[in-house]
Amino acid sequence: MIDAQRVDFIAVPVQDRKRAARFYEDTLGLRRNPNSTDTWVEFETGNATLVVMTPHTHDSEFAPLPPGTIALRVLDVAAAKATLEAAGVQVNDMWDSGVCHGAGFSDPDGNRILLHHRYAPYPDVSQP
After folding, report:
1. What distance separates the 2 farthest-apart alpha carbons in the chain?
2. Would you call 38 helix, strand, or coil by DSSP?
3. Which has more pLDDT, 117 or 37?
């Protein structure tokens, strides 16, 4: 075992760092972390850091993240969806899995992001 303590960050590949930073800061309202560079911009979500980065400056090719990589917990999916749509973001229809609600959208580079709210209690996984 490696004894992982937490997820420190999730790297989000983008083609235009400035455009992406505006989207994550202005449209999504995430708080920018001051630990940013010309190729790496950090945003705080409360329990994990999202890093908007340009892959070509880190010896990699651009490809958007696969669906479901980033799920943002919100108190009210419908309200968050309406807010994003008012800002011009196309958000998919809401769905209900039986334990949570969600609705997906894309950032300007095609990275799929999920608005998510779990309403059912979490199972007690401490019992065998």
Report:
1. 49
2. coil
3. 117
